[in-house]
Amino acid sequence: MYALVDCNNFYCSCERVFNPKLNNRPVVVLSNNDGCAIARSEEAKAIGVAMGAPAFMIEELLKKHNVAVFSSNYTLYGDMSDRVMKTLATFCPRLEIYSIDEAFLDLHDMPYTDLLHLGMKIRKTIKQNTGIPTSVGIAETKTLAKMANRYAKKHKREVGVFWAANSSLVNEMLRATEAKDIWGIGGQYAKLLQRNRIHTAYDLSLVPEEWVRVNMSVVGQRLLNELRGIPAIESEYVTPDKKNICTSRSFGKLLTSKADIQEALSNFVAICALKLRKQKSCCKMLEIFIQTNPHKTEHKQYMRSIRVQLDRPSNNTSELIKYAIKGLDIVYKEGYLFKKTGIFALDLVPENAVQSSLFDTENRGRSKAIMEAMDGVNRLLGKDIVRIATQGYEKRYRLRAAHLSPSFTTNIDQIIKVR
Fold it and tell me: CA dist 175 to 139, 184, 201, 324, Å?
């Protein structure tokens, strides 16, 4: 048996934890630069706020219904997610974190446990420890557990838990789930199933294996097995290292100055370099891109990227910034209003597998010690307390975040004060 625990309207719930006045009021969280709605409370969904709707297009709707609007506060959401996952780990050691707000629990080592009671206890404990409401779906496979979680949200909202304990309950859930809503069914497969009059998950579970293999390849075969209660998706209890790392942002305002863009790019490279060091990897190549705003059709448009090969794989912030600036020198053009830049760290290799070069004049031991010292100080005293000079302090590129809530759990100066 697997359990899929999912936080309900996670970003909105995080905002509500620290402001109970938001309960029963529509809440919307916007994407970077306060662009689009990326999280909606149930109340916001009920008044017609669509996922991905541009903020400027729904401004009147938000005002009319007194919707509480927030900028994305990923520092807060990440810390709250960590607290939820640590709570889940106390129930089951075999935990697979699937995303920031959901995780699979492998319950195969708990054959004599009342799983419905366990699901309700999980919900109660997470709510008590973090204030975050959750839904729990329990079934024989991951796909069925994901479906059970969705079924719990739609049809068992008061309980918040659904355990597909027998074939009757499984079939009930399958019949209530449209084929397009099955985990793993994309747009093209949804159209294929619709054309062949396969409307529900139950319909798909009855389709001959040969037809699925021919029309949906091995992916469809695995999905069919999962729907029939045969586990076919492996678990990843340890998050694998990233194969490539990207950091990019839209600017809070259009930029023309190369110096401002260089400052932004240097900060993005620093983020990439830190991620590389955390997973003990080095990159062989950087890709730098720069672009104008394609939605501003009245402006001249320009977009270009370039790949820069490193002489030796590295995760040293200073070294990577030098290569990134070389790339920016090539792709930058005057006379344009730029909206976005970014960096890809490509061809990653383990830090301990980097081959030394006979012509490398850099003192690698010293460079590594400097990076470790810088990371240690920043962990202790705060992000970017120590930084490379080209990262600057102006941050003219800073994202718009007009509705940003405090970092209640990670900044001592922003914690809630009881009067």
Answer: 15, 17, 6, 53
